[in-house]
């Protein structure tokens, strides 16, 4: 896909559609939606043409176009909106300052740190709600967890079964991290147990991505297949006791 579009659930049709790149060999790899520091809703598109584009979703306006030396596969904005984790067709990721600003009509982002440890190209990033922890998913079949206070080594290295870590999500309460492989496997890790406890969801199908509901009660897994395309929903299981029900 070389473009990006916007739909509203409360209205019919497409609210906004634009072509993000005119490079015939480029595609839009990922879209990140977030609330800007100014209070509006923005989204950031990561493209194969080595560009990252930031859009205002309310005014349907391109705000920034940032260029990198390699195709960008995924970007994610920290909870305080001040840092951006960027990964792509390079073994190292980048942590950049989102507030660096413009210089001579070009966007110049200051690199805070390089994220070194993976052995292949990366495809996914995600931030923990605490704003200090983020994760990267790589083609080397690992998901690495990082602490911005010490990026000399990763906090955890989590290995997959078959393929790359292609999609990562933290729950809103920060208790869980969900990692999806390209097919068949989704892993749910307990962050409070230092990622040593996990639940593995095993099924048959190519995975387009994962997402959690805002209240963390449901996990959604997208299955892409020309015949059996579907959306799987898993609900969070609670162990209620009498005292819990009383409270």
From TrEMBL:
Keyword Transit peptide included in the entry's annotation: no
UniProt keyword list: WD repeat
Listed InterPro entries: WD40/YVTN_repeat-like_dom_sf, WD40_repeat_dom_sf, WD40_rpt
WD repeats: 115-156
Domain of life: Eukaryota
PANTHER family: GAMYB-BINDING PROTEIN (PTHR43991:SF21), WD REPEAT PROTEIN (AFU_ORTHOLOGUE AFUA_8G05640)-RELATED (PTHR43991)
Protein name: DUF2415 domain-containing protein
């Amino acid at each position: 896909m070389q473009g990006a579009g916007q739909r509203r659930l409360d209205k019919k049709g497409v609210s906004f559609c634009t072509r993000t790149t005119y490079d015939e060999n480029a595609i839009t790899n990922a879209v990140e939606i977030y609330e800007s520091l100014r209070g509006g809703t923005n989204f950031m598109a990561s493209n194969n043409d080595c560009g990252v584009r930031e859009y205002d979703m309310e005014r349907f306006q391109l705000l920034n176009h940032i260029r990198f030396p390699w195709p960008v596969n995924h970007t994610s904005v920290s909870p305080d909106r001040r840092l951006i984790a960027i990964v792509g067709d390079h073994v190292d990721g980048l942590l950049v300052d989102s507030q660096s600003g413009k210089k001579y009509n070009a966007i110049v982002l200051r690199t805070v740190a390089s994220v070194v440890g993976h052995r292949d190209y990366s495809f996914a990033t995600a931030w923990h709600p605490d704003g200090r922890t983020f994760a990267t998913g790589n083609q080397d079949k690992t998901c690495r967890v990082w602490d911005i206070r010490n990026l000399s080594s990763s906090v955890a290295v989590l290995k997959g079964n078959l393929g790359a870590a292609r999609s990562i999500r933290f729950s809103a309460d920060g208790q869980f991290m969900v990692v999806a492989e390209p097919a068949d496997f989704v892993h749910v890790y307990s962050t409070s147990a230092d990622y040593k406890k996990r639940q593995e969801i095993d099924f048959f199908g190519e995975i387009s991505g994962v997402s959690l509901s805002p209240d963390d009660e449901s996990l959604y897994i997208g299955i892409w297949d020309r015949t059996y395309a579907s959306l799987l929903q898993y609900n969070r299981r609670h162990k209620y006791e009498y005292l819990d029900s009383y409270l």
